[in-house]
Amino acid sequence: xKVFISCDIEGISGVVTxxxxxxxxxxxxxxxxxxxxxxxxxxxxxxxKAGATEIVVNDSHGSMTNILIEKLNPxxxxxxxxxxxxxMMQGITGEFDAAIFVGYHxxxxxxxxxxxxxxxxxxxxxxxxxxxxxxxxINAGIAGxxxxxxxxxxxxxxxxxxxxALLPHVHTATVKWAVTRTSARCLPPPKARDTIEEATIxxxxxxxxxxxxxxxxxxTFKIEFxxxxxxxxxxxxxYSKVIDGRTLSFTADDYLTAFMGLRAxxxxxxx
Length: 271
Ligand SMILES: [Zn+2]
Hints:
Elements (H helix, E strand, L loop, with lengths): L1 E6 L10 H5 L6 H21 L4 E6 L16 E4 L18 E7 L18 E6 L2 E2 L2 H11 L4 E7 H10 L4 E10 L2 E4 L2 H17 L13 E7 L2 H7 L6 E4 L2 E6 L2 H15 L2
Parallel strand pairs: 1-2, 1-4, 2-3, 4-7, 7-8
Antiparallel strand pairs: 5-6, 5-10, 8-9, 10-12, 11-12
Helix pairs in contact: 2-5, 6-7
The structure holds zinc ion.
The site of zinc ion has 4 residues, from loops.
């Protein structure tokens, strides 16, 4: 059994603020990346106990150089650094049996801890084939393109509900409960790690019930930017379509190409 793990930081227990915890110049960034490494290690440990023979972890936050490799559970290998063509899903192939998301957060607009969708500065909403999606859905579709089911999503209670609404079979591990977008009731690290390890074993032990999620082709990503200037910049992408002053769409025959269009539009939006 081969297991792919995508690990973000905003959904890690104890992490609630962007300025001091999730950016490298923040006062508590060092602590946050240590906590992130601890939670991903719990998923690795659970996967190994469930029988995984190969585990690949993809660092999926910001510069994608957050996870401390010197503290990584040696049962896994680590994809670190950026940019990467598949971004938060770099490394996924059809050879994997399951994908797990650790440290994930709710989509923009939800009262989930540090909720955003890819870019907090420019993205208001994303839909795929008219289904509202956050990073959980967008990345589940990439796994789906390769025929891989997402079996577990770890993070706060809000991302757990978002994941369940889209992927009814999915297991969740809740490590914190949002109070506001920048506050939460959090499990202490040992308890968060136990929760994730147990959920990983449970999810991989019931792999037979997991379902691949892949929107039908042709695939259309629709993106509402925060302002019209950003949408105007993004409209420079060939084959993008203007819906209104802040909203564009991009359609392709396959999910991966549509995702590349989404990424390109978000990249152009800030320039
Ligand atoms: Zn992140």
